[in-house]
Each structure stands twice: as structure tokens, then as C-alpha cells.
Design a protein that fits this description.
Helices cover 49% and strands 16% of the residues. By secondary structure, it is an alpha+beta fold. The two termini are 44 Å apart.
């Protein structure tokens, strides 16, 4: 038999313990056998190996290769500037590797946070004496003494319990404290047994003595920690896309470099000219600034989200939000306000709201209000603040709001337990001794023989009992938690049962009210094609009622799956059940929440999960985007999550999704921008080889564009505000590529070619103006050659200044696009202009980048090309809008699948 099925005596015997606890001579042996009562870390890879791995992924290897080739070329032909190129590439590798490692280190802090929840010292009985020991030294068989306010340090079986109530929310997810006693339990589930206390929970009220039966990693708490540690979080969609993009760009650069090396050999170039040419092709095609720009764009997006109460812990999670298709959300504190309030009363045989009681409530309902004010176990702290069961706090607040502020001395109590489902307190009042009782109607009503109606005390007949039962059903259908209140005067003739022959006072309906903004957020999710699933530890009836109030459930018969039913479903059955248009999970356990996430991921959904307890941590880590509550979450949940809601509000998730959707579009915008400049960087090398002209653009000048002038405008595109229509579109598929044929055609086949034409035209404009003859060679330090390459570089940058405004929108025309709303783009253009002026007109710029000052005629020559770029792109956008418009309304794939099923 399991330990919770045994009697207290049998439980002690099964653990080799007794009423006096363990003997000191047995402690050391048990510590050796079972280990210390602490959470153990699994063996981890060396931090140095993890650090080194951040510099050895595919994109980094390509950059290492480019840097190595640059240093090799410098060793063979010194003074060509290749060493500067090599150092610049090494700087890019260092920045990206260090930042990625910092992200990884953050993700390893969950186990340290778990330890903080366990108490340092505990009270135990050993050898018949009460003593304090370190919680780490607890062993199975120890007798643990607990009282109100204590955290539970290990899994224990109760031996004695006095008015004991425990907050199990960190383990089971239940929002209300639960009564516990020492009687044998018939429950199968250990966590639901009324005589079991679990590590990581806390004592809300009462006192207890319990025997420890599991410590450390063997506790339910430890099992969750192990699950959390062994849960592997997959790459985010953005990480997969960046990896795919890195492979594409790197392989393209290598293939082009190798191909044109062979072309150079075929047309008779010397080996070193050919080698330099191949390096130039590779460097021109590898966007060295891609990863830094993505990182900075994501970092700035996190700042915008923080202003909307969403704190991002892992940068790739910013974009993951944008592709979210399903949100699995808690109820308490996320959809609701996490505070109990009295919503409805049943008094004088009628339903009413608390604000309808009127001025005479104290006179007509004095005993009802006195019961609400006095029948509780609350403690006052810091003056007037009440600490304890939120349901009891709500009842006291009801009484106070109606003017009932009494503090009659408590002279006795009949405590609450799970069998009685009621509690009673005895008080010495000016009118004599009184008993006040509250509890479930089915447990209080049979003990009542009379009912209070206005100022009268009437007999309670069968018709009156049916009326109360009907009132209960009406209130329960609204999702209210219903309590019955009763009272009676106590006299010397009261028999053995003080709760007999009570006077029924009335019914109270309590609720945790929904947040007012949640209903609109649910509507936004529905419009945006995002499915919302409630996953809660509360009762199904309560869950469905709240879901209906906020618009999450609109049909008459939503699918409701309890934890017990979920245990019986196979993975295939669960996946099919998730196709229901409206689904609510209630009474779910810790591991079950993760099963739901895994089932959704098998359906290729991008899943966001909210949570606040230890029990939620594995699901938070497994989800594509784990969302912890900033106000109510345990440290464990926060460490396992990717995002923390600073206001614990579901509406903040929707705001963050809107920002996340903008991130993917913005990354595409700056990809278009930076890839466009690759074409005018590559074509000069092709012309150099194929037409035997002086090299129009040097490698260092390419870096001046990729890591200099392009960086800030590209970053400006990365922080564009969300489009007004962002939340009227379905979620983007996680398989959709960052780079598709339309982006490549626009960047390489259209904008890039126009920029290349302008760059080559400016190069030849300077040469022809100086009388250069085709075929004549120019030394590398010839003033004419320096001015010509400077003109080529200048034309690229001028064209990119025009291009940054074109890239703000893929379809919308320039006149319909706000051009001055992004300060970072404007600042970027200003810096871009300042940099090119410094490169062209300062001695250090001339020396470093191989440039020379230009006359005003070169600038005037390039301006018509920039205007032509604007006109051509506006014409292209008009043609796209005219002949290939995007569909205005696209049904979400999630919803389509639901309807098919």
C-alpha cells in the first residue's frame, strides 16, 4: 500500500520510525543511503567548451575562413590592407560569440532558484527531543513539526493536524488553500491526498506533525526539478531561420569565390591577383553586419516590449512571439484579478448584489454580516492588513463595507476539514454566546432547522430547502463559489453538537473577477488567428464560467478536459482533442501541462505558455515561448521562462505578440537593405576580371559599407513600429523563410542592379573626366584611381540613403508611408552622411580606406541615379499592388484545421 493509504502508526512503522522520532545513531546511515535533502545538479558540459562552441557554428566558421585568408594574403603581399580586413572580421566573430554565450549562461539558473524555495532550518523530533536542524539534513523517518507560515522542506505524511490548511499552488496549481488531516486517504494521486504535505508548499493556517518519507530529488518537487533540467528547448523559429540564412549566404559566397577564381585562372590572371579577387567576392557576399544588426534589432525590440509590460529574457523569443499560433494560459491572476470578491447574495429568499443591501442591512442582516466578519482564521499584520484565505478576506470586506466592524472574542472553534466542508467559531457577544458557521450548502443545510428572513426567524421546511438548492444552482451556473452561512445562540442547554439546530442566514457567491481588458485581448487573438486555450488547476465549472465571461468560450458545449481524463488519453487522442474550436483544461497536474505543450508542438504549432508556479516550470521551458508572471511567479518559473509579464496581465501578451510580428517584417526590411548593397560590391570585381579594368572597389571600402555606413540605417529598419494591420493577419508559418525568392529578386535583381549601375557609372565618370583610356593600368596609389574608387563608394552610399526609405514598406507607396516617424533611421542617414564625408575628406579616412577628396560634380552626377531608384521602385510597387495584391483576409491555419475536424 502507498503511504497515504496507511494509518499514522502504520506509516511510522513502514519508515522505521516511532513517536519519539529517529535515534541519532541511525541518522548518519540514512544520510549515506538517501543523500542530503537538496536538489542536485546534473553534470554539465564545461563552460569553456560551451564558450568555444559559440565561435564554431557554421556562419562563424565562414568568417574565420575569410579572416584567415585575409591574414594569409597580408603575409604574401604586405601593405594591401588585408590585415585590417582580418581584424575587422575577428571583431564581428568576438561580439557575436560573447553575446550568445551570455544568453546560454542565463538559461542555467533555474536549479539555483529552486533551492531558494526550501527553508534553511526546520524543527524535528529526534530521540524524543524537539530540535532545530538544517533542512539539508532531513532523512526519511524524521518527525517534522510545522506551524502557520512554515515552508514544507520534504514530502511528509501527516501524523497530527490541527486546523491545518496548505497552499499547494506551486505544485498543483490550485489557487485556494486546501485543508489537510491525518486520516488515511483513498485517493490514488499522492499530490491530491489530504494527508500528504509536499516539499515546496507552505502552511497557511494551523499546526501539524508529520513523518518525512521522501527527500531531495525523490520528492515531487525534486521530480519537477529533474524534468526541468532534462527538458530540451528547441531552437526558436528565428534561430532556425538565421542558421538557414547563414548556410545559404556562406555557401553562395564560397561558390562564387571558387567559380570566379577559376574564371580568373582561365583568362590568365596571376595567382595573387586571382586570389585577391576570390577573397573580394567572398567578403562582398558575406554580410558581416547581419548578426550584429539582428542582435541589436532584437535588443531594441525588447526595450519597446518592456514599456508594454513584457520583459524578454532571451532575445530570439522576441520574434517567436510573432509566429505564435496557440496560447495556453492560466486562469488565476492572468485572466482574472487574483482576488476573491463577493458578487452575489441570496438573502430573504431573493438574489441581490452586495450594493443592493441598503442602509438597513445592519438591522435586517446583522447575524449574517457578523458571521461573515467573525467566522475565519485570518491574521492581522501591519495594522489592518488581513493575511490568510482570500475567500475569508472577501467575506470580512463584505461585512466591513456594510458597516459591520465587530471583534467579539473567539472562545472556541470547530475547525474546517475536507470531510465536514464547513467551519464554526464560537464568540462571546453582548447578546450572549454565539456560534457562526460557514461552509458548503450540502453540509450546512441539513444542520439548520430555521431560516432568517428579514427580521423574522421562520421554520425551514422542504419547500424552503428546495428554494435554497435552486439558488445554489443558479449561482454555480455563473461560475461563483457558493458558501452557506448560519448561526445560533448558545445556551447552557446546548448538547454535545453545538452545530445542531442552526438558523440559516444566507448564501454568498464569490468570484475572482476577470480583468476588464482581457475580453478585448481575446477578441484580438481571435481576429489574429491565435487560438487561446485555458489550462488551470481550478474546478471545471469555474474555468468554463470565467472562459464564457471573457469570450474565450462562446458555444453551448465547449470541450472540457480534466486532469483525470487527460491521464487516460493517448498522445493521438490528445492531438485530435486539441482540434476542438473551444477547449478548456481543468484540474491539470504539473506534467500534464507539458504533455499539452508537446501535443501542440507535434501538430506544428508555435506554442506560448503562461505559468507562475514550480509546477509550471517544465512546460514554460518546453514551450516555444514561456511566459512567467512578474508579480506572482516563483523564481523557478521566471528562470525557466523566455518572457516575464510585469503586470501579470493577459492583455500584455497580445501587445507583445504585436511587437513580435513586427520583428520578422523588420528583419526582412533590413535584409533587403543590406543584401541590396552586395550587388554593387560584387559587380566591380566581375568587371575587374571580365573587362580588365582597374578594380572599382577595394575590400576595405566594402567593409566601410557593411560594417560602417549601412549599420545604423539597417538598425533603424529593424525597429520600425508595428504595422496597423499586424494583428488582422493570421500567424506567420514558422517554416516561412526569412529570405524568399521575392526578397532576393527585389534586392539582387532590381534594387541591387540599379545601385551597381550608379556605382560603375560614377567610377567611369571620374576616369573619363581625367582622360583615362580603356586598357590603361592605374597603380593602387595613383590619385586618379583613388578618386575613381571613392566615386564608386560614394555612389553606393548615396543610393543606400534613398534605399533605406524605400525598404520601409514592400508594397505601400512612398507618399503613403510616414518617412519621418523613425528617428533612428533619420539619425542613421545623418551618421551615414557624416561617415562618407569623413572617409572622403579627412586624411585618416583617405589613409585607412584608400580614398581621395571628390569635387562637387561627382555628387551632382550621382543624385539623378538616386532619384531614378526612387521612381523605378515606386513603379514596381504600383505594379505589384495593381496586379498581385496580397489577400486582405486569410484564415488562420489553426482555425481551418479546427473546422475540418
Amino acid at each position: 500500500m502507498k503511504i497515504h493509504h496507511l494509518t499514522p502508526e502504520e506509516a511510522l512503522d513502514s519508515l522505521g520510525s516511532g513517536p519519539n522520532g529517529l535515534a541519532d545513531t541511525t541518522i548518519e546511515g540514512r544520510l549515506r543511503e538517501f543523500g542530503f535533502n537538496r536538489l542536485e545538479e546534473t553534470r554539465k558540459k564545461s563552460q569553456w567548451l560551451l564558450f568555444a562552441g559559440e565561435f564554431l557554428h557554421f556562419f562563424a566558421l565562414i568568417l574565420w575562413l575569410a579572416a584567415g585568408l585575409a591574414f594569409f594574403a597580408e603575409s604574401q603581399q604586405p601593405g594591401e590592407g588585408m590585415a585590417t580586413l582580418g581584424y575587422a572580421i575577428l571583431g564581428v566573430i568576438a561580439i557575436n560569440g560573447c553575446f550568445s554565450f551570455w544568453q546560454r549562461v542565463q538559461a542555467e539558473q533555474a536549479i539555483a532558484a529552486l533551492r531558494k524555495l526550501l527553508p534553511n532550518q526546520v524543527k524535528v523530533v529526534r530521540d524524543g527531543a524537539l530540535c532545530r536542524i538544517l533542512a539539508d539534513e532531513l532523512v526519511p523517518g524524521d518527525l517534522l513539526v510545522l506551524q502557520e507560515g512554515d515552508n514544507v522542506p520534504a514530502d511528509c505524511r501527516l501524523l497530527e493536524a490541527f486546523n491545518l490548511r496548505v497552499n499547494n499552488s506551486t505544485i498543483t496549481g490550485e489557487s485556494l488553500p486546501k485543508g489537510r488531516d491525518a486520516l488515511p486517504s483513498a485517493a490514488e494521486d499522492l499530490a491530491q491526498s489530504r494527508n500528504i504535505l509536499l516539499a515546496g508548499t507552505s502552511v497557511v493556517a494551523g499546526e501539524a506533525k508529520a513523518v518525512v518519507f521522501a527527500t531531495g530529488m525523490h520528492t515531487e518537487f525534486g521530480k519537477i526539478a529533474h524534468t526541468l533540467k532534462t527538458t530540451i528547448k528547441g531552437q526558436s523559429p528565428l534561430q532556425r531561420q538565421i542558421a538557414r540564412l547563414s548556410r545559404f549566404v556562406a555557401l553562395l559566397a564560397l561558390l562564387l569565390g571558387a567559380a570566379f577564381f577559376l574564371i580568373g585562372q582561365a583568362i590568365g590572371l596571376s595567382f595573387w591577383e586571382n586570389f585577391m579577387f576570390a577573397i573580394g567576392i567572398i567578403v562582398a557576399n558575406v554580410p558581416e553586419g547581419l548578426l550584429p544588426t539582428v542582435t541589436l534589432a532584437l535588443a531594441m525590440a525588447t526595450q519597446r516590449m518592456a514599456k508594454r509590460n513584457a520583459l524578454i529574457r532571451n532575445l530570439p523569443s522576441v520574434e517567436t512571439l510573432g509566429s505564435t499560433t496557440v496560447i495556453c494560459t492560466d486562469k488565476t491572476g492572468t485572466l482574472t484579478q487574483n482576488r476573491m470578491a463577493v458578487k452575489q447574495l441570496f438573502l430573504d429568499n431573493r438574489h441581490c448584489r452586495p450594493d443592493e443591501l441598503g442602509r438597513d442591512s445592519l438591522r435586517h442582516h446583522a447575524e449574517f454580516l457578523a458571521c461573515a466578519a467573525l467566522c475565519h482564521d485570518l491574521k492581522r499584520v501591519e495594522g489592518q492588513h488581513l493575511l490568510g484565505d482570500p475567500m475569508e478576506v472577501a467575506l470580512v470586506n463584505l461585512a466591513h463595507d456594510q458597516g459591520m466592524r465587530v471583534a467579539y472574542p473567539k472562545i472556541g472553534e470547530v475547525p474546517f476539514d475536507t470531510d465536514r466542508k464547513r467551519m464554526s467559531t464560537l464568540h462571546d457577544t453582548p447578546a450572549g454566546k454565539r456560534l457562526y458557521c460557514k461552509g458548503a450548502l450540502e453540509m450546512v443545510l441539513p444542520l439548520c432547522s430555521q431560516i432568517a428572513v428579514a427580521d423574522q426567524i421562520l421554520p425551514l421546511d422542504d419547500a424552503g430547502r428546495r428554494t435554497l438548492q435552486d439558488a445554489l444552482q443558479t449561482m454555480a451556473d455563473q461560475g461563483l463559489r457558493v458558501l452557506a452561512l448560519a448561526h445560533r445562540p448558545l445556551t447552557d442547554s446546548v448538547g454535545a453538537d453545538p452545530e445542531a439546530a442552526m438558523i440559516f442566514s444566507g448564501l454568498v457567491g464569490l468570484e475572482d473577477p476577470p480583468r476588464p481588458e482581457v475580453a478585448d485581448a481575446i477578441t484580438q487573438c481571435r481576429i489574429a488567428g491565435i487560438k487561446v486555450i485555458m489550462v488551470t488547476g481550478d474546478h471545471p465549472h469555474t474555468a468554463v464560467a470565467i472562459a464564457r465571461q471573457i469570450g474565450l468560450v462562446q458555444s453551448d458545449h465547449p470541450k472540457v478536459i480534466t486532469g483525470d481524463r487527460l491521464k487516460k488519453l493517448t498522445p493521438s487522442q490528445l492531438q485530435l482533442a486539441l482540434d476542438a474550436p473551444e477547449i478548456v483544461f481543468a484540474r491539470v497536474g504539473a506534467d500534464q501541462k507539458m504533455h499539452i505543450v508537446e501535443a501542440l508542438q507535434r501538430k506544428r504549432q508555435v506554442v506560448a505558455v503562461t505559468g507562475d508556479g514550480v509546477n509550471d516550470a517544465p512546460a514554460l521551458k518546453k514551450a516555444d515561448i514561456g511566459i512567467a508572471m512578474g508579480l506572482a511567479s516563483t523564481d523557478v518559473a521566471k528562470e525557466a521562462a523566455d518572457m516575464i509579464l510585469l503586470d501579470d496581465n493577459f492583455a500584455s501578451i497580445v501587445a507583445a505578440i504585436e511587437e513580435g510580428r513586427a520583428v520578422f517584417d523588420n528583419i526582412r526590411k533590413f535584409l533587403t537593405y543590406i543584401l541590396t548593397s552586395n550587388v554593387p560590391e560584387v559587380i566591380p570585381y566581375l568587371a575587374f576580371v571580365l573587362f580588365k579594368i582597374p578594380l572599382p572597389l577595394t575590400i576595405l571600402q566594402i567593409l566601410a559599407v557593411d560594417l560602417g555606413t549601412d549599420m545604423l540605417p539597417a538598425l533603424g529598419l529593424g525597429v520600425e513600429k508595428p504595422d496597423a494591420a499586424a494583428m488582422r493577419k493570421p500567424p506567420r508559418s514558422s517554416q516561412e523563410s526569412l529570405i524568399d525568392w521575392r526578397l532576393l529578386a527585389r534586392a539582387y535583381g532590381f534594387l541591387g542592379l540599379l545601385e551597381a549601375a550608379a556605382a560603375m557609372a560614377a567610377f567611369f565618370f571620374v576616369l573619363n573626366a581625367a582622360g583615362w583610356d580603356y586598357g590603361a593600368s592605374l597603380p593602387r596609389h595613383d590619385p586618379l584611381y583613388l578618386r575613381a574608387t571613392t566615386a564608386c563608394l560614394t555612389a553606393i552610399i548615396v543610393m543606400q540613403i534613398a534605399n533605406v526609405f524605400l525598404c520601409k514598406q514592400r508594397q505601400r507607396g512612398l507618399l503613403a508611408t510616414p518617412l519621418l516617424d523613425n528617428r533612428l533611421i533619420l539619425a542613421g542617414v545623418g551618421v551615414e552622411i557624416a561617415l562618407i564625408l569623413a572617409i572622403v575628406y579627412t586624411p585618416w579616412g583617405n589613409l585607412l580606406f584608400g580614398t581621395a577628396p571628390l569635387g562637387h560634380e561627382v555628387w551632382l552626377f550621382t543624385l539623378p541615379f538616386a532619384l531614378g531608384l526612387l521612381i523605378c521602385e515606386e513603379l514596381r510597387k504600383w505594379l505589384v499592388r495593381r496586379f498581385a495584391p496580397f489577400p486582405r483576409h486569410v484564415k488562420s491555419p489553426v482555425l481551418r484545421r479546427s473546422r475540418r475536424c
